[in-house]
Amino acid sequence: MAEGRNPVAVASLLLPATLLFIAVLVIPLIMTVLLSFYSWGQYTGIVEDFTAENWIEVFTDPYFGEIFLRTLRISFLATLLAALFGAPEAYILKRMNPRWRGLFMLVILGPLLMSVVARTLGWALLFGGNNGVANQFLMGIGLIDAPLPFMFTETGVVIALAHVMMPFMVLSVWASLQRLDPQVENAARSLGASQFTVVRRVLLPQIMPGILSGSIIVFALSASAFATPAIIGGRRLKVASTLAYDEFLNTLDWPLGAAVAVLLLIGIVLIIVASNALVERRYAEVFR
Amino acid sequence: MKKNGFLALAFHTVFVIFMVAPILVVCVVAFTPEGFLSLPTNGLSLRWFRAIADYPEFIRAFWTSVYLGAVSSTIAVILAVPAALAFSRYAFPGKGALSAFFLSPLMIPHVVLGIAFLRFFTQGGISGTMTALIIAHVVVVFPFALRLTLSAATGMDRSIESAAISLGASNFTLFRRVTLPLILPGVISGWALSFIQSFDEVTMTVFLAAPGTETLPVRMFLYVQDNIDPLVTSVSAVVIAITMAVLIILDRLYGLDAVLSGHSDRNS
Amino acid sequence: MSFLELSDLRKTYGNVVALENFNLSVEKGEFISLLGPSGCGKTTTLQMIAGFTEPTSGRIVLGGRDLVSMPPAKRGLGIVFQSYALFPHLTAAENVAFGLEMRGIDRASREERVREALAMVGLKGYEDRYPRRMSGGQQQRVAVARALVIRPEILLLDEPLSNLDAKMREEMQSELLSIQRRLGTTTILVTHDQQEAMALSNRVVVMSKGRIEQIATPVEAYNNPASSFVASFLGKTNTLSGEIRGGTLVVGEFRAAVSGADGPVAVTLRPEKMRFDSTGLRGTVTARVFQGNCWSYQVQTAQGEVLVLRQNDGQPLPVEGDAVFLSWSPADMGLRREGLSHG
């Protein structure tokens, strides 16, 4: 019991979940990889031969290249936006009176659990073509003269994605702020550091792991986001996941859609694993 | 600790407005008395909330979502509790790999899961059925259920279990009378988080749902794809209100950042 | 055969030996302390008696029954854990009743015994309190009542007082002792606090690095430590080097008649056994610290620094800088020859 070595007990406790995962996660994923090597024709449907033609098409047709590049660009910008705004906000929350903090935590983290469709719908209403609320507001305060195009643009998708992902960034930075010794800031100040120096030399290096791991999460989720780019981007501004959706449910070319999906999966897993390894190596000391 | 300065508070205000604006605008537009999308400048009206009743597919989709969320999170929790006990109580080879395996649905894009499940269920001949949806949702909410039950199980003082054993408790009694009551808060919040995840899931479900098994987010998504009108905003407002209620209850019970940290640490 | 017999117990984790050559016989009604610093193997021993850890080899026999092969739930021992390990979701009374329930004791006599047990530890009226709403001392009492209400053959106490403040600890010590004496329950206490072990137990088992250093009554172990480890663990000790020449012990200027062969010896002396005298080991007081009931002196001698404790009984005492002579009664010192080849 205290030693915790009892193979029979371990196996019987873990078996149900493991079986489920193998049966309905591993097998479907393998089937999808296989599917990506089948061919498809308008009249023949899926033919279970074994060909690399979908993969060749995905890698050679500039149409796909453009979409994957756009996916990366949008995800990167959304991550940047989330980090730029989420990290300072987490710090402000940390310094806030706990009573207010509770309220604002609810306001800022709450959207995480709200329907993505509802949240994106909100942005669609704000952007809403030329007379969206956002444009009216920006023109009202005199920041712009003519309405900016938000709907069906990358800018709009980036803003909406940054909003959808923001709570993850705030949470991640918040968690690293929680681990800080509050006296360290005072120590720096007692040694004569200005507020700016404290933030730059003492605080930022310590919360950098939080910002980076938050960025990894936000980037991965942005790259695989579906509902937000589908609604704000519309049918023309495609990203990888909406492309796979179209191939599957509109064109009905499942093998090609599977190839796009598998490529997206591999790309995201590689990015997560690689950047996690980098962050952990770089900040191994801080993580302790 | 030093207080926030003026600049910080200004930043904070802008930030909060940014976070709240899209949600607020949905809720406000839902009360428009007009027949088209507009801010309700001429008074508030409930006409679009009443209009929901005339679109039974939204009502049906809502109950589908509730049923799907309840069943799949219950199954997920039933599977997660024994797994969490094994992870927290025993040392065994491959432990790290297995826990990464169980958390992997967090890393896999839901589009990919949707495609994989669609192919799998089509081959299995159960495509579009409720059973298929439940299986798929159990897989995607399982990590949330596991995370929270696991943190409850590891956080518990093990000597309490030793005490019960020394007093003569059998394995079953130990679980029923001591372990389960002690990890119950974690189990309940794991269930609640799983439910919300299932209730909100749209990307994967859009591949799997057939006209009879459409969930609310799927119905909303498909509706928005066609046209955006005040009806879908009032439906969204209702969804937001329900989520808010659950959220406030969760926050009161366990503290929101505690519940959500299981949510955010998907890479650790 | 004794009531509880631990023979040749050994426990290894991989290549690490946590415990070896552990032999101990405990008589019925005895209060035994396993005493040592952390990592000495005392907790491992307790865990093995309780059944939460399996010995690598060796036997544990209680009243003629082999315990090792018995699952912990069937051993019928009462255990008080360091963290108390109370069931936080049950009231004090429900906590105490748990073990009785497991034994299938009917409700009426269960309630009776729970009431008695809580009264015994001075918690009458706290039946419906939850542990969270009780102080550390009260939780401790519930834990003791819960362990004793099942009338265990042995009571195991795992550092039970370490989470209490000094005053509470003393109070609980005397209460534990009186309960134990009254019930006559054979008790094994694990502790790193030598004061606690000496105050409570009939015999102490001093342990270090997985081995027993000495098994003796507290007085014996204190006055005649079997090793320098025991000597230093059971309180402060001065070790002086001396020599026996023809029946006389010579330590600096100090002389005393002893029996024994000629040769160098190590002399161990408790600080409170040394006194300031007109003759003896010469030294200078370098510092003194007032400790309330006594003064603690540091005296520099040719033998090195010597610690001396003197009662604060109103007698005139030397101050810093005074030249003094230290002497002691030969009956109070320990003589050892081992390990002295280099002084």
Q: What labels describe this entry?
A:
heterotrimer, A: mainly alpha, two-stranded antiparallel ribbon, globular, C: 343 residues, alpha+beta, Rossmann fold, OB fold (Dihydrolipoamide Acetyltransferase, E2P), six-stranded mixed sheet, five-stranded antiparallel sheet, 24% helix
Describe what is shown at a glance.
The complex is a heterotrimer of chains A (288), B (268) and C (343). With 268 residues, chain B is mostly helical.
Care to describe what's here?
- The complex is a heterotrimer of chains A (288), B (268) and C (343).
- Chain A has 288 residues and is an all-alpha fold.
- Chain A contains 13 helices and 2 strands.
- Chain A has one domain (63-248, 257-287): MetI-like (MetI-like fold, Orthogonal Bundle), CATH 1.10.3720.
- With 268 residues, chain B is mainly α.
- A 6-stranded mixed beta sheet of chain C has the order 6-7-8-3-9-10, sandwiched between helices. A 5-stranded antiparallel beta sheet of chain C has the order 13-12-11-14-20, with no helix packed on it. Chain C has a 5-stranded antiparallel beta sheet with strand order 15-19-16-17-18, with no helix packed on it.
- Classes of the chains: A mainly alpha (288), B mainly alpha (268), C alpha+beta (343).
- The interface between A and B is large, with 97 and 97 residues.
Q: Measured on Cα atoms, how large is the radius of gyration of chain B?
A: 22 Å
Helix and strand pattern of chain B? HHHHHHHHHHHH
Order of helices and strands of chain A: HEEHHHHHHHHHHHH
Report the mean per-residue pLDDT of chain A as an integer.
Answer: 87
Quick one: CATH class of chain B? Mainly Alpha
By helix and strand content of chain B, what is the structural category?
Answer: mainly alpha
The most extensive interface between chains reads: A-B, 97 and 97 residues
Shape of chain B: globular
Given as residue ranges, the uncertain stretches of chain B (5+ residues, pLDDT < 50) are 262-268
CATH top level label of chain A: Mainly Alpha
Largest sheet of chain A: 2 strands, antiparallel
**Looking at this structure, what is the CATH superfamily of chain B?**
MetI-like
Strand order of the largest sheet of chain A: 1-2
The CATH homologous superfamily of chain A is termed MetI-like
Task: Note poorly predicted spans of chain A.
Answer: none
Name given to the CATH architecture of chain A = Orthogonal Bundle
Q: What is the multimeric organization of the chains shown?
A: heterotrimer
Number of discrete helical segments of chain A = 13
What proportion of the residues of chain A form beta strands (DSSP E)? under 5%
- How helix-rich are the residues of chain A, as a percent range? over 70%
Averaged pLDDT of chain B: 88
